[in-house]
Amino acid sequence: MFGSKTKHKRTPAGTRTLPAAVVRRPGLRGWRGRGQGEAVYVTAADEWRGTSVQVCGLWPFVGGSGTPIVGVPIGVHTDTGAPFGGDPISWFMHGMINNPSMFVLGLPHYGKSTLVRHIVLGLAGRGINPLILGDLKPDYVDLIRALDGQVISLGPGRGHLNVLDPGEATGAAVRLIASAEERRAKANRATDQEAAAKLLAAAVKAEKLAEQLMADSHNRRLNMITALITIVRNAKPSAHEESLVDRALHILDERLDRVPLIGDLIDVIKDAPNELRAIALDRGDMSRYLDATDQLRQSLYSLDGSGRFSDMFSKPTDQPMDLTKPVVFDLSGISDTQRDIQAACLLACWSTGFATVQVAHTLADAGLEPRRNYFVVMDELWRALRSGEGMVDRVDSLTRLNRTEGVGQAMITHTMSDLEALPTESERMKARGFVERSGMVVCGALPSGEMEKLNKAVALSRAEQARLISWADPGSWTDVGGSRKRVRPGLGKFLFKVGGRPGVPVALKLTSVEESLHDTNKRWHDNSEKFA
Question: 75 - beta bridge partners?
Fold first, then answer.
């Protein structure tokens, strides 16, 4: 004890006296006063986290951090330093979100792609195969190579992707039919009626799956051709042109015993079979048929090696996807000035990727392949959305069923302005739906002008808005040209939002192994000394 004990004197009734001595105690920072040793700064106590087995001896002197750590370890809470972990697939599996998807927003060069690569790496370690369906910079090629994955190059003079190739669908349908026949044969030989009934039910299921697979493959090819025509024209094809392509694809499948090409589709339309002439309403007049199909054939010629798309889509596919490995489509050979080509390649990659995933899940449903789950990354979303009329609908149809298809998904763009820049209000509403339907929305540094637009899709408090705006600060001028490397306040910081819950501000932490995989400024390193 400091000072002396307090002693009270006995006094007559009705009178009060002060204590003989007042106890002096130090404040929270020690004894205050000149030469008394008051601490100006009190260091925060170290915080440690462990399992109940490791820290059971400390009970009950432990407390929760208040931040989730389910899934891929991301980093620490920017205010408390508490560890934070999460990814859309793990949170969905634990019932924390209703949809295994995330939408990432943030200004360029503040770490969006680094965050997604970090999540990709963490999920790959948990057995979830990453599919990077279009890498324009490239941001993910080194990572996929490090994971011993498949790198597929696509671009003028760099690779080919046949959009009329059904991919694995044909082979999968053959396997399903063979499996159905085998089960029917076993059912006929079975002596147990219950076992025979189960085999017959499995055979019927396999046959239905085969039919559905081929129907979906046909629709995917039709949608891809119409989407490419939309990009070529910057306008949607007419209804009768879609019907012509639809019927022509059926004719191709009946005529050819190989995978068709764009040139084969053009030849069928030029041959003018009666089925196509009936759709064109030529009324027996060949000139009417030619007039009805001229514009369609011109658009297809642009995809057949005669236009700006070169022969990317007109030759057989160079490298079919291997869904037992991580996959990335490398589109870095396409110049940023060729926005329409980039958008066309992104759509082709997305369509091919989702179609191949569907085949894998169909085979798993029939018991012919092990069940696998995938994490699909769709970067630079704004490029595809702005490439032509109707593209929002195409992307919407590709991404709406990710939960039922067993696929986690990340969609990445810079700002809400990318979505608000679409020409019609209906398209803008559908694009906002991409954000609203996402299980989690991750926001990096954003300018103040984005807040009103972002609030239409996800509710942000004033404090959260102020935080995002502060992260967009470029940093202090005093560091420019000095010995210290200038660090932007918002670099690697993200706000994780789920529904109406308060957002969790997180600072991304990378391991030393990852740092070499996250360098997107490699082409500047050789000349870095010139600017020192």
Answer: 84, 508
Give the dihedral sign, CA 94/95/100/105: negative
Q: Residues 6 or more apart from 395 whose CB is under 8 A from it? A: 347, 350, 381, 384, 385, 434
Q: Considering only CA atoms, give the Rg of the chain.
A: 31
532 band by pLDDT with thresholds 50, 70 and 90: low
From CA 222, how far away is CA 494, in angstroms rounded?
39
Pick the range with the lowest mean pLDDT from 308-312, 359-363, 479-483.
479-483
- Cβ(339)–Cβ(234) below 8 Å: no
Measured between alpha carbons, how far apart are the two ends of the chain, in Å?
A: 60
Side chain identity, residue 167: G
Q: pLDDT grade, residue 62 (50/70/90)?
A: very low
Backbone angles phi, psi at 421, to 5 degrees: -80, 0
| Residue pLDDT, tens place only, 169-216 | 999 999 999 999 999 999 999 888 899 999 999 999 999 999 999 999
Give CA separation, 476 vs 260, 444, 447, 473, 505, in Å: 59, 19, 17, 9, 22
Question: What is the phi/psi pair of residue 30, to 5°?
Answer: 105, -165
Give dist(CA 187, CA 163) in Å, integer: 40
CA dist list (Å): 456 to 328, 336, 376, 510: 33, 30, 26, 33
Q: Which amino acid is at 140?
A: Y
The letter for the amino acid at 395 is V
What residue spans of 408-447 are helical by DSSP H? 416-420, 425-437
State percent of the chain over pLDDT 90. Answer: 44
DSSP output for 240-264 = HHHHHHHHHHHHHHHH-SS---HHH
Residue 3 — very low, low, confident or very high, per pLDDT cuts 50/70/90? very low
Q: Residue 7 is encoded by which pair of tokens?
A: 């002693």
Q: What are the angstrom distances between the C-alpha of 237 and each of 59, 211, 292? A: 69, 28, 12
State whether residue 407 is helix, strand or coil: strand
Q: What is the pLDDT of residue 488?
A: 77
The pair of three-digit structure tokens given for residue 192, joined into one six-digit string: 């147990």
pLDDT tens digit sequence for 97-122:
988 999 999 998 899 989 999 999 99
Is the per-residue pLDDT at 50 higher than 90? Answer: no
Backbone angles phi, psi at 168, to 5 degrees: -80, -5
